[in-house]
Amino acid sequence: MPRRALLSFALLLALPALAHADGGQRPEVEAAAQRLQGKVVEMRRWFHEHPELSNQEVQTAAKVAERLRALGLKPQTGVAVHGVVAVIEGGQPGPRIALRADMDALPVTEATGLPFASRVRAEYRGEPVGVMHACGHDAHIATLLGVAEALVAMKKDLPGQVMLVFQPAEEGLPPGEEGGAALMLKEGVFADFKPEAVFGLHVFASVQAGRIAVRGGPLMAAADMFEITVKGRQAHGSTPWLGVDPIVASADLIGSAQTIVSRRANLAQQPAVVTFGAIKGGIRNNIIPDQVNMVGTIRTFDEGMRQQIFKDLSNVAEHTAAAHGASAVTAIQEGYPATVNDPALTARMLPSLQAVVGADNVYEPPLQMGAEDFSMFAREVPGMFFFVGSTSEGIDPAKAPSNHSPQFLLDEKALDVGLRALLQVSLDYLHGAG
Ligand SMILES: [Zn+2]
Ligand SMILES: [Zn+2]
User: Fold this and answer.
1) How far is the CA of 403 from the centre of ligand 1 (A)?
2) Which ligand is nearest to the CA of 138?
3) Can you say how many angstroms the Cα of residue 382 is from the centroid of all Cα atoms in its chain?
4) β pairing state of 287-288 and 362-363
C-alpha cells in the first residue's frame, strides 16, 4: 500500500472518534440505525401499500398499536378518532418530550410504478378516488416506530420520558368532522403529559436526500379560507339601472383586495398571500344575478398580520360592495396557524441535526407557503419541525415531483436520515446536551 494511501486510511479510521469527541453522531444512534434500517424500510413499504384517507386510518392505527405492543409499550388508541399515543418511561430521571408523526394519505392515484405502489381506492366527497401516501406520511410513521424501538432498547439508561404521538388527519378533514392535532389537544393529549418540547419531521421533495432543512421562527404558513358573498338585486341584463349588479361589484372587490397585501401588509416583516380561488355568479347572458360567491385562501406567518388581513379583507369587501349599492358578507374559516419553530430550541438542537448529516448538509430553507398542523402542538409547547430530503441524488429537487404529486417518489435514504435525526435530537435533549 503506498504511503499516501496508508495515511488517508489512518485518517479515515480516526475520523469517527474525532467526530464523536466533537459532539458528533452518538454511537448508539449509529448502532440503532444499522440494526433497524431494514425493518424501517419494510414497515414504510407496508404503510405505503396500505394508505388511508384522513380520519379513516383504521388499519394504519391498528398496525402502529400492534408494533408498539410488540415493543412492550401500552398504546392508547382511538385518540382523536384514530390516533395512537404511547409513553416510553426512561429508567432515569429526566425531561419529558413528545415526538409526532402524522399518518394519513391523500386522494391521489399513485403513478410511481413502484412494486409496492398503492392500488387502494376509496370515496372522497362522493367521488371514487385512488388513495396514495403522496405526502410521505408513510415514512413518518415508519421512522417514528423505528425511533420507538431504538429508545425502548435503551430504556434502562434513558433519562426522562418520551411520548410518541401518531396523529391522524393532518391533510384536512371531511366536512363537518373534527380531527387531527387540534382534536388530540382538545382531548387532552398534552394535559396529563405536558412535554417540555415537541419534535417532528417531514420528508420533502424540495430537499435532496441526505440533507436536512430547518429554520428557527416561522417555517410554514398559516392557511385560512375565506368566503365572500356579494348581494345585489336581480334584473334583466338589458336594464341594469333596475337592479344592483353584484358581478361588477365583485370585479371591483377582487381588484381592491389586491391592495391588502401590496399596500397594507408589512411585507418587510413577513410575506403574505391572498388568493381568490373560485368565483361563481349568474346563469345566462341576459340576467344580472342576485348574488356572487367567492372563495379563496390567505397565507401568513405572523399572527398579527393574519388577524389584520382578516379585518382588511372584510373591510374592503363591505365597502367596495357598498360603493356599488351592493352588500358583502365575509366569512373566515381558520385553518392551521403558522408553524413556528421555537428559536432557542432550534438553535440548541441544530448541532444534533448537523451531527447526523454533516454541517454542510443542514441549511435554512425559504419560508414554505404550505401549512401543517404540527403548528398546533408547537403552539402549546416549544417545538421544532424539520424537513428531511427525499429526492434522490442526480435529480434536481426543484424539478422533482412535489409532495402530493402522483409521482412523488421517496428516496428511502430519507428513512435512515429521519431515524438518525429524530433519535439524535431526542437523546441529546434528554441527556441535556446540545
Ligand atoms: Zn401533505
Ligand atoms: Zn404532509
Assistant:
1) 7
2) 2
3) 16
4) unpaired
What is the tens place of the pLDDT at every residue in 71-82? 999 999 999 999
Grid cell for residue 103: 399518518
Which of the following is catalytic: 52, 102, 104, 428? 104
Catalytic choice (170, 312, 373, 411):
170
pTM, rounded to two decimals: 0.92
Residue 312's identity, in one-letter code, is D
Structural domains of the chain ordered from first start? 24-219+338-430 (3.40.630.10), 222-333 (3.30.70.360)
The answer to whether 230 and 366 are in contact (CB under 8 A) is no
Tell me the pLDDT of the chain averaged across its residues.
Answer: 95
Cα 171 to ligand 1 centre (Å): 6
**429 alpha carbon – ligand 1 mean position (Å):** 28
pLDDT confidence tier of residue 11, bands split at 50, 70 and 90:
very low
Q: Is 104 a catalytic residue?
A: yes
Neighbours of 55 (CB within 10 A): 21
